[in-house]
Amino acid sequence: MLRQLYVPSDPNLLVGFNTSDDAAVYRLDDNTALVQTVDFFPPVVDDPYDYGAIAVANALSDIYAMGARPLIGLNVVCFPSEGLSLDILAAILRGGGDKAREAGLLIVGGHTIDDKEPKYGVAVTGLVRPGSQVTNSGARPGDRLFLTKPLGIGVITTAIKAGVATPEVVAAAVSVMTTLNRAASDAMVEVGASACTDITGYGLLGHALEVARGSGVQITFRSSQIVVLAAARDLAGLGIVPGGTFRNMNFLEGQVQWDPAIDELQRTLLADAQTSGGLLIAVAPGKAELLAAALRRRGVATIAEVGVCSEAGDFPLRVIE
Q1: pTM (two decimals)
Q2: Residue 191: which CATH number?
Q3: Most buried residue, 26, 33, 184, 241, by most Cβ within 10 Å?
Q4: Over 70: is that where the pLDDT of 1 sits?
């Protein structure tokens, strides 16, 4: 049914939704293009302040994945008119506002509706020089792939909802989710990345599939190089896995050539639905060490070279041990 939707066409629309990219890019003149995105979701942690900060960091990742600079934002708020204290809403907005200030994003307004389940996020407008935007469809054979945050967030947020995550596990997950992808974005812009996407609800493999299809390449991941939060492995082994991860696995059916050595637990974690995950960055072979060095200089905590692009094959994705 969605294929019947109108697809806009304009010579100044440099990036639309035909490649499932992270944000839209519209050229204003030869030097300036607008980059726009929106994202909001229900709480993934119990603390309202942390939830607000995570929601804003997550929305900003779409801007950072395009190699753009965030400029202004509009809050998107769903909150019940009865049953929850407005102090909770104030804490959510304060967390979001503090994270926005860290990013240099100006929250200039927004819209609120009455809803039984709280939801929060931001519509973000950023800026980029036309032609300098980094898309998810520019990867080339030979490109090497880097991931800048660990996986497993979906499993841990599910454990939080179930009340089985320890305070230490929660704190580690919140630290990952509230970390801006700004430093990673600056590093990839400095060295000149071929392609990039942020890792969110479709999981590492789902978003990589968009890169592979959009770029016309095959992506091979080396499972042993992919960083996963230790607690996520333990929790997933106990069967604590979000529904979105199972949907991702179903969607990936027939799209991934699996090394028989990759067990079901690892396959699940590679498809785990993330919130405010890292950037998956493709760079030419000669720029790989430059990117790693640029990420280190900026203090990016996770610098994992996880795979390589090659000519398109029978499967868009491969996972080896």
Answers
A1: 0.96
A2: 3.90.650.10
A3: 184
A4: no
